[in-house]
Amino acid sequence: MDIGDRFRFRLEFLGLRGIVAALGRLPPSLGRPTGAVLGRLLRAISTRRVRLSEENLRLAFPEAGDGQIRIWSREIWGHLGQAAWEFARLTRLSADEYRTAVTVRGLEGIQASYAKGKGVLLFSAHMGNWEYAVPFLALGGLRLASVARRIKNPLVDEFVTGVRRRFGAGVILHRNAVRESVRWLRSGGALGLLFDQRITEGGISVPFFGRPARTTGLPALLALRYGYPVHPLHSYRENGRLIIECQPAMDIPSAPPTPENLRSLTRRMTGVVEEWIRRHPSQWLWIHNRWKP
After folding, report:
1. Which residues have a Cβ under 8 Å from the Cβ of 178 and sit 6 or more positions away?
2. Distance between CA atoms of 197 and 182, rounded to whole angstroms?
């Protein structure tokens, strides 16, 4: 890392901390609308990302008219702005304040799987505010670790990782994901993975809204090879409130992790994510190229 990179990383980090400090002090009555306004302002200067999100929406929802696509496109940025305020607030919330900030549905299924002491796989997506899907599990008594990508700026990476660990959750860096994930699950822990982003190396090509998308095969591999129960869960906003919805364990066949079986299970998991997005189209992260080869 040269001097220029260190200087740039420091500036980025200080800017982030300043924004987080300012937003994090705002109560919900001010923070939520302020975040939405900031998101819409960011949309005004992010023309390339706006075009990409609208192109993605048209590919996923060819039946939607241009008017509906524009509505969803505007809503996406409002939701992202609210997510930024929520993340800033998460740096300051107490455990009790966090519990009042979310509504959790269906947790008993995950608790029952976890109580068997043989490890539990959880997969989620970049919807609502995915950062809020981690603390409630750790606060509920589960030994939880989530798999995360390392952020290029090491100062920002350290800060974000610290926020994710605030309520007792662990973080497994993506580069060591397979080995560390197996070790964690064998110890009886719960492992969370975000399942909906493009994989640049390896991965499995499965349909996502009818088009091939490179997708991580890690949860399918762990489930088929070791027999861990798999629970989908995701977050979304409903009437100004964050909902964390946990689903029952998927029916996983007792089958070897052959390429065909891995692809079949990965495709089923992708179908679950697609169903979530269809329910709340403007609350998913459409601003990246999910279908890029």
Report:
1. 218, 221
2. 21
> How many CB atoms are located within 10 Å of the residue 170 CB?
17
- CA atoms of 157 and 161, how far apart (whole Å): 6
End-to-end Cα distance, the chain:
30
Helix (H, G, I), strand (E, B) or coil at 117: coil
pLDDT at residue 6, as a whole number: 85
For 168, the 3-state DSSP assignment is: coil
Q: Is the dihedral of CA 245, 251, 256, 262 positive or negative?
A: negative
Determine if residue 233 is left, alpha or beta; phi over 0 gives left, psi from -120 to 50 gives alpha, anything else beta: beta
Higher pLDDT, 103 or 178: 103
Six-digit token pair at 182? 């197996």
Closest of 84, 71, 68 to residue 36, by C-alpha: 84
Q: Are 163 and 208 in contact (CB under 8 A)?
A: no
Domain positions in the chain are 3-283
Structure tokens at 245: 């919805």
The candidate with the shortest Cα–Cα distance to 88, out of 42, 27, 173, is: 27
pLDDT at 202 over 90: no
pLDDT digits (tens, 9 = 90+) for 109-142: 999 999 999 999 999 999 999 998 878 888 888 8
Residue 101 host element (H or E): helix 95-101
The Cα–Cα gap between 272 and 119 comes to 21
Q: What's the Cα-to-Cα distance from 94 to each of 132, 139, 143, rounded to whole Å?
A: 13, 11, 19
41-62 pLDDT, tens digit per residue, is 999 999 999 999 999 999 999 9
Q: Which two tokens stand for residue 187?
A: 């110890």
